[in-house]
Write a structure and sequence with these properties.
The complex is a heterodimer. By secondary structure, chain A is mostly helical. Chain A has helices at 10-17, 19-42, 51-72, 75-79, 84-91, 117-128, 130-135, 137-157, 162-167, 169-178, 190-195, 200-203, 237-241, 265-286, 290-297, 302-330, 333-338, 350-358, 361-380, 382-389, 411-440, 445-462; strands at 4-5, 183-187, 247-251. In chain A, helix 14 (265-286) runs parallel beside helix 22 (445-462) and helix 21 packs antiparallel against helix 22. Chain A starts with a strand and ends with a helix. Helices cover 33% and strands 34% of the residues of chain B. Chain B has helices at residues 2-19, 123-155; strands at residues 31-39, 42-44, 47-50, 55-62, 67-71, 76-80, 85-91, 96-101, 114-119. The chains are: A mainly alpha, B alpha+beta. The interface between A and B is large, with 47 and 42 residues. Bound molecules: iron/sulfur cluster (3 copies) and copper (II) ion. One iron/sulfur cluster binds at residues 185, 217, 219, 221, 223, 232-238 of chain A. Residues 67, 102, 104-106, 110, 113 of chain B line the site of copper (II) ion (CU).
Chain lengths: 463, 156
């Protein structure tokens, strides 16, 4: 169904299959990551002049949310340095698998935690402290280092990439929004997988004799069963291991995964967490309300405690509550009748419907983040040049750009671009809601109204 | 066909909402002086309103460290030393809402030290809400058009 297989191109295929290009990017990323930690610790405490803040929260964030996630899904995870040291230790190898593997504990991740609730909590913890995190180099350094070492620790205890799958606060929303991306890794033919001996894509093929040596899926995914991008880290390992050349990287229509959304509550709440935090950030960080900024920044004060409570209240009570109300209305016979839809009870009720329908908020949430980030990034892009020349804020001038004056760029394009993003997201989400409603035989109007209302609030906050 | 027409009509309406010129305001421009106190990390007042064509003089008073004030869209700025008053005068000749922000690094939350000045009306907000409304309505004919096309493709 309208897919274009990119791996049919031999150049693309061998570039992805070969371990060296990826390793080269890995090394650059890891060096940058370690440098960001060091800069945060030893560089200037002034956030806007410290490499750690500028390159993580302005440059990396801009690329991640404006380019990588919308167009490449989990593409960032394919080059992310955070899990690498742990993974290399776990494997006892940097490139090809060894015949003799090091003996770590290699436990299975506990069944009760095989969901993204820990990721949701990790994201919320960072979000509640975000004003400090975004502006204080030492805190950013500590968080970056903590992620690196947690990932290493988990690799020693658990098998595969437990950190990425179950804990990484970034990975959670990348996975959620990767479902909208026009890129996917899938098998070509189901039958080949059914008859495939040993399933090396999942179990690994470590005989150094084999041309297809490689590791079993680090993300604990069986490629043969992939239907969504959410948990495939695009690490390309299965492309290397599959002896039947049955793995393809495809271009596809946007948001193809959302046609059959998951009905998982952890993922549903991820959608609300992301939608809500984009709105809250827009108000707190970009709004004109000083008292709100104080409350968010002075962690531990009573104002901050109220802020945290309101933050969580919006995400866990108000947004999902109103959404449930919309779904309740959508099931009313009168609304269905006035749309000329078939009478009778809509299929699926309660939590399942709630979880399934919340998938229609995914495009909207992504576009909320795009609109929010556009403003943040365009306003502060000038710091990237400054920080490039003077990464530690010590008065260096490596490339002669240390004295570039701060000035927002593209100010006249910003607001129209935000409008386009938000209205585009609204159309996209409304369409998703309609498809879902058609399938469940309920009215789409309440959910569309919900998306509309959220968009209007976001427009008001940003414009 | 009807769906296609309604989409075209909605699109035209969208263009009108986005770009139609508004009648010029009738209030005569005047000179205004606004005093703004700046502290880490807020302005007060932080929301200003002036009329189109007004000559605006901002008196920026900093109550702690050095702060600045840069107006997005107008690209004008001023800096004030602690305890001193600095003035900035400009003609508000573009309507809409604009952020103004500190342009002197003044501490951790400096990048988020932001206020808002509205010249006449926040046109873009109203236009955007209008566009959002048309967009939601447009999804109905759009979907049935897409469904129809898919059905036809399947039938072939
Ligand atoms: S899940 Fe997190 S740590 Fe893992 S690759 Fe993705 S961003 Fe990196
Ligand atoms: S190794 Fe290839 S053919 Fe075998 S199960 Fe995995 S993807 Fe399918
Ligand atoms: S091995 Fe394949 S399925 Fe598993 S994460 Fe890597 S690319 Fe995705
Ligand atoms: Cu400042």
């Amino acid at each position: 169904m309208n897919r274009i297989e990119l791996t049919r191109n031999l150049f693309i295929k061998s570039a992805l299959k070969n371990r060296h290009p990826q390793l080269a990017v890995f090394i650059v990323m890891l060096a940058g990551y370690v440098f960001a930690i060091l800069a945060g610790l030893i560089g200037t405490p002034v956030g806007s002049h410290n490499f750690s803040i500028v390159f993580v929260w302005i440059a990396w964030w801009a690329i991640l949310i404006l380019v990588a996630v919308p167009f490449f899904g989990r593409g960032w995870c394919a080059v992310c340095p955070i899990p690498l040291p742990g993974e290399w230790l776990q494997r006892g190898a940097v490139l090809h698998p060894l015949d003799k593997k090091p003996k770590w504990l290699n436990l299975r991740w506990p069944r009760a935690l095989r969901n993204i609730w820990l990721q949701n909590i990790a994201f919320l913890l960072l979000a509640l402290f975000s004003s400090v995190l975004l502006t204080t180099p030492t805190i950013t350094a500590i968080v970056l280092a903590a992620m690196l070492f947690t990932a290493i620790g988990l690799s020693m205890v658990f098998e595969r990439r437990a950190f990425c799958r179950y804990l990484c606060p970034v990975g959670g929303f990348i996975g959620l929004y990767s479902q909208t991306a026009p890129l996917e890794l899938r098998i070509k033919d189901k039958q080949t997988c059914v008859t495939c001996d040993g399933k090396p894509c999942y179990n690994g093929a470590s005989t150094s004799l084999s041309a297809n040596s490689g590791y079993g899926c680090p993300w604990d995914v069986f490629p043969g069963g992939l239907t969504r991008n959410t948990y495939c880290g695009l690490c390309m390992e299965c492309l290397r291991t599959c002896p039947h050349d049955n793995i393809a990287v495809n271009l596809r229509p946007f948001s193809a995964d959302l046609a059959k959304p998951s009905a998982r509550l952890d993922e549903a709440f991820k959608a609300f967490i992301m939608l809500g935090s984009a709105m809250i950030y827009a108000g707190v960080l970009l709004g004109p309300w000083g008292a709100l900024k104080d409350a968010a920044f002075y962690v531990g004060t009573s104002a901050w405690i109220i802020y945290a409570a309101v933050f969580l209240g919006i995400i866990f009570i108000i947004l999902p509550g109103l959404f449930s109300l919309a779904l309740f209305l959508a099931h009313r016979p009168s609304l269905k009748a006035c749309l000329g839809r078939s009478r009778g009870v809509g299929r699926g009720t309660g939590l399942r419907t709630f979880a399934m329908f919340s998938a229609s908020l995914i495009p909207l949430g992504l576009m909320f983040w795009v609109a929010f980030s556009l403003s943040f990034v365009l306003t502060n892009a000038a710091y990237i040049l400054v920080s490039l020349s003077d990464p530690l804020g010590l008065g260096w001038n490596l490339f002669g750009t240390a004295d570039v004056a701060w000035r927002p760029i593209f100010t006249s394009l910003l607001a129209p671009a935000q409008t386009l993003a938000l209205v585009g997201g609204l159309i996209w989400s409304a369409r998703m809601a309609q498809k879902a409603a058609d399938e469940s035989k309920i009215s789409a109007i309440p959910v569309m109204a919900y998306c509309f209302a959220a968009t209007v609030v976001m427009l008001w906050l940003l414009l | 066909m009807i769906r296609f027409i309604s989409l075209v009509v909605l699109f035209a309406a969208g263009l009108a909402v986005a770009f139609a010129p508004l009648p010029a305001p009738s209030i005569a421009p005047q000179a205004r002086t606004l005093r703004i106190d700046a502290r880490q990390f807020a302005y007060s007042p932080s929301e200003l309103k002036v009329n189109l064509g007004d000559t605006v003089t901002v008196q920026l008073v900093s109550t702690d460290v050095v702060h600045g004030l840069y107006v997005d869209g107008y690209d004008v700025s001023v800096e004030a030393d602690p305890g001193q008053t600095a003035t900035l005068t400009f003609v508000a000749d573009r309507s809409g809402s604009f952020r103004f922000r500190c342009n002197v690094t003044c501490g951790a939350m400096h990048p988020f030290m932001i206020g808002k000045i509205t010249v006449e009306k926040n046109d873009l907000l109203f236009r955007s809400v209008g566009l959002a409304t048309l967009a939601v309505i447009g999804v109905f004919p759009l979907s049935s058009l897409l469904v129809e096309r898919k059905d036809r493709a399947l039938a072939k």
